[in-house]
Amino acid sequence: MITYPNLYVGGQWVAPATADVLEVRSPHDRSLVGTAPHAAPADVDRAVAAARRAFDEGPWPRMSPQERSAVVERFSKLYAVRAEEFAALVTAENGSPLWFTRWTHLQSLPEMTEAYVRAAAALGWEEEVGAVGDATTRLRREPVGVVAAVIPWNAPHQSALVKLVPALLAGCTVVLKASPETALDALALAEVFDAAGLPEGVVSILPAGRETSEYLVAHPGVDKIAFTGSTAAGRRIASVAGEQLKRVSLELGGKSASIILEDADLTAVVAGLRALSLGNNAENCVAHTRILAPRSRYEEVVAALAAMMEDVRVGDPSDPETFIGPMVRADQQQRVRSYIELGVAEGARMVTGGLETPDGLEGGYYVRPTLFADVDSDMRIAREEIFGPVLVVIPFDDEDDAVRIANDSEYGLGGGVWAADREHGIEVARRIRTGWMTVNGAAPTYDGAFGGYKSSGIGREFGVAGLAQYVEYKTIAA
């Protein structure tokens, strides 16, 4: 069992303000993984004060971009040494299958960090942009200030570093509020930042629940909020930011559509959707959970998807052969099951899956991967984010109809197009109002931009666009 007695506040391991403790239990068998302090508002006050001093008076914002990049690169090297350990820890905490956490921690996060470092090197931190007579106009990019980063439990290190890395490269100081379900990996991450040699006050990491999150985002010492989570919580945070005129970026929910055009290679489609739709237990904001199929191939698509979903291995997430693990909590398990019940009540045809717990897994929060056919886009199972392994197949008449259905959503985070002609697939992708599209399952690089249209959020992450979320622009004419 892992025990953290202290919090990481401003670069120091300090006793928490209260005796409240978070117990992190495995969603696989409910065993105790470890304990950590439950950060309280008083801990937030200390962390924000340290971040404020470090930003207003300390060296970090005044270092050159190259010096800050060197510290971030040192952090990345130290992180790589422990990446396998972190993958196993996150799997134990939240039930993400080991294949997914290994990919995230050993491959994805280093690539993301490298892309941010490249973006920082390419960014013109101060440049001449014009002149009138003998007077020149300079455009400066300066750090936005103290950042409150609030993250979920489903991919905790990815959600943390997609905010911490660009904020630090820009010269900001950061208070990271981690979820109770993944408190242990948050404080393990603090150990790496501590070893990287950041100046005092630059980073604090506090695991806590919703009440402490609300206190942090409303804190007068915070200049910018960076949030990943539900659309409902994002709306609340946006209202706080609006009242206080704080900068805000929000990465929120999704209900991504995958359009299978008539000439698509169905074998490749199903192989791609295995990860795009069900990756990370489908507790994934960009999961392709709306599958749009042409009427001429509808039953063929349904049968192929059902065969794939019945073939995936559900079980202990620490087993490398497991593809889908448990839901993170009992209430999340019940939420997903309630949508399965709703789908049946709405008149959809349940092709595979259902409410029964997979054999031998009754001690955990497991849900059988479930596929619904004969789904109308007005059904709630086709419109609301379920955040679990429940997929719906919606028929379309022609390409224009497919685009209309894909865009008929309050969300606009991810999506895909499958086509024999890649260029034609790109043309269709351009018509979808969503921020993160794949054609034939191609994986975008971290030099692009990630974020959503409509209720899927505000702002972007990754690359130059993500780095720009943490800067203010100043014009100097002289």
Helices and strands in order:
Layout: E1 2-3, E2 7-9, E3 12-14, E4 21-25, E5 32-37, H1 41-57, H2 65-94, H3 98-122, E6 126-132, E7 135-143, E8 146-150, H4 156-170, E9 173-178, H5 183-196, E10 203-207, H6 210-217, E11 224-228, H7 231-244, E12 247-251, E13 256-260, H8 266-278, E14 288-294, H9 298-311, H10 330-345, E15 349-354, E16 368-373, H11 380-383, E17 390-396, H12 399-407, E18 411-412, E19 414-418, H13 422-430, E20 436-439, E21 453-454, E22 457-458, H14 463-467, E23 471-477
Parallel strand pairs: 1-5, 8-9, 8-11, 9-10, 11-12, 13-14, 13-19, 14-17, 16-17, 19-20
Antiparallel strand pairs: 2-3, 4-5, 6-7, 7-23, 12-22, 15-16, 18-21
Descriptive report:
This is Acyl-CoA reductase. Keywords: Oxidoreductase. Belongs to the aldehyde dehydrogenase family. InterPro entries: Ald_DH/histidinol_DH, Ald_DH_C, Ald_DH_CS_GLU, Ald_DH_N, Aldehyde_DH_dom. The active site is at 251. The chain is of the alpha/beta class. The protein has two domains: 2-252 and 456-477, Aldehyde Dehydrogenase, Chain A, domain 1; 256-445, Aldehyde Dehydrogenase, Chain A, domain 2 (3-Layer(aba) Sandwich). The protein contains 14 helices and 23 strands. The protein has helices at residues 41-57, 65-94, 98-122, 156-170, 183-196, 210-217, 231-244, 266-278, 298-311, 330-345, 380-383, 399-407, 422-430, 463-467; strands spanning 2-3, 7-9, 12-14, 21-25, 32-37, 126-132, 135-143, 146-150, 173-178, 203-207, 224-228, 247-251, 256-260, 288-294, 349-354, 368-373, 390-396, 411-412, 414-418, 436-439, 453-454, 457-458, 471-477. The strands form six sheets. It has a seven-stranded mixed beta sheet, sandwiched between helices. It has a six-stranded mixed beta sheet with strand order 10-9-8-11-12-22, sandwiched between helices. A three-stranded mixed beta sheet has the order 1-5-4, covered by helices on one side. A hairpin with a 2-residue loop joins β2 and β3 (12-14). α1 packs parallel to α6 (210-217), α2 runs antiparallel to α4 (156-170) and α8 crosses α9. The longest helix is centred in the first third of the chain and has 30 residues, at 65-94. It is globular, with a radius of gyration of 23 Å.
